[in-house]
């Protein structure tokens, strides 16, 4: 039985190594208000601290994936002090992106609809991103005088090249799921009605795989853009040394030689 946790603005279950976090403010297209931020932070802390978790699936309820920061929390009456957006980024968005990229396990993201502002960049910090055919990606920040955050200015030029990154960031046009696939932002486009099922199946598969090794693959690939060739070769050596000491490596080799399916424990 999945183990449900009681939250107001997210759904969070743990089931056989799969942690499933679904954003749940559909009427606001899952925009982040402070309570949803607190709940996402708490759920991710649980994921980080629970050694039985072997994969995280991030998705959302309703017709949208996430519309970024809830702008209803950002209206300022004349004479009122403007909120410190740097503090907001430091408190929630940056730690969220760091957590997703540093979790030593695969993070699957199923983008079920429009993804805007921070909501468009959060998937880019995940490892395997599926999007429904009707999903779209909008770097909406420029429309309200802001800059792409949540790692957007780092990820976008690396994924799509500087020319497209600047157009996305300065025009804030909607990018369809097909375009996002063609531009290298996501892994796969799935029919709307099949997205949830396919994402869960992918996550369940990953939950049976050598988690420690997958975490090291993620670490190596995430380090690659910041490393020179020699540094990356040295990192591969060090991480392979670690992988080679895992129980799952021994099991993988034994199972291969015995011509039987491997049974991985994740360590
Ligand atoms: O502030 C900080 O802490 C700094 C960090 C910032 C990070 C950020 O994410 S800044 C960027 C914030 N997000 C946006 O600017 C996106 C705003 N939303 C939109 O541009 C559009 O809603 C969408 C392109 C996402 C979708 O358009 P559409 O036409 O499909 O839907 P809609 O009708 O605009 O929205 C549906 C409802 O969701 C609507 O409410 P209503 O009229 O039905 O009661 C709309 O107000 C609400 N909604 C959508 N986005 C937000 C939102 N409510 C609050 N905050 C939102 N971001």
Summary tags:
4-stranded mixed β-sheet, 267 residues, 2-enoyl-CoA Hydratase, Chain A, domain 1, alpha/beta, Lyase 2-enoyl-coa Hydratase, Chain  A, domain 2, binds ligand T3D, 7-stranded mixed β-sheet
Commentary on this structure:
By secondary structure, the chain is α/β, with parallel strands linked by helices. It has two domains: 3-207, 2-enoyl-CoA Hydratase, Chain A, domain 1, CATH 3.90.226.10; 211-258, Orthogonal Bundle (Lyase 2-enoyl-coa Hydratase, Chain  A, domain 2), CATH 1.10.12. Helices cover 43% and strands 17% of the residues. It is built from ten helices and eleven strands. A hairpin with a 4-residue loop joins strand 1 (3-5) and strand 2. The two termini are 23 Å apart. The structure holds ligand T3D. Ligand T3D binds at residues 28-29, 31, 67-72, 74, 85, 88-89, 93, 114, 116-118, 138, 140-141, 144, 146, 149.
């Amino acid at each position: 039985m999945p183990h449900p946790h009681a939250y107001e603005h997210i759904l969070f279950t743990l089931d056989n190594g799969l942690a499933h976090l679904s954003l749940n403010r559909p009427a606001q297209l899952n925009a982040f208000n402070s309570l949803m931020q607190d709940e996402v932070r708490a759920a991710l802390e649980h994921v980080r601290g629970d050694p039985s978790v072997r994969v995280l699936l991030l998705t959302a309820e309703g017709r949208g994936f996430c519309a970024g920061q809830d702008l209803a929390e950002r209206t300022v009456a004349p004479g009122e002090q403007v909120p410190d957006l740097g503090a907001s980024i430091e408190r929630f968005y940056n730690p969220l992106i760091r957590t997703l990229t540093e979790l030593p396990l695969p993070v699957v993201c199923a983008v079920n609809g429009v993804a805007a502002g921070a909501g468009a960049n959060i998937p880019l910090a995940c490892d395997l991103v599926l999007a429904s055919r009707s999903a779209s990606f909008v770097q909406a920040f420029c429309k309200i005088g802001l800059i792409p955050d949540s790692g957007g200015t780092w990820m976008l030029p690396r994924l799509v090249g500087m020319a497209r990154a600047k157009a996305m960031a300065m025009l804030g046009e909607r990018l369809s799921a097909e375009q996002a696939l063609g531009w290298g932002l996501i892994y796969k486009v799935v029919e709307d009605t099949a997205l949830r099922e396919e994402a869960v199946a992918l996550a369940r598969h990953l939950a049976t795989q050598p988690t420690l090794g997958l975490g090291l693959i993620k670490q190596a690939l995430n380090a690659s853009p910041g490393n020179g060739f020699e540094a990356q070769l040295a990192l591969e050596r060090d991480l392979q040394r670690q992988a080679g000491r895992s129980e799952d490596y021994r099991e993988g080799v034994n199972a291969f030689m015995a011509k039987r399916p491997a049974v991985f424990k994740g360590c």
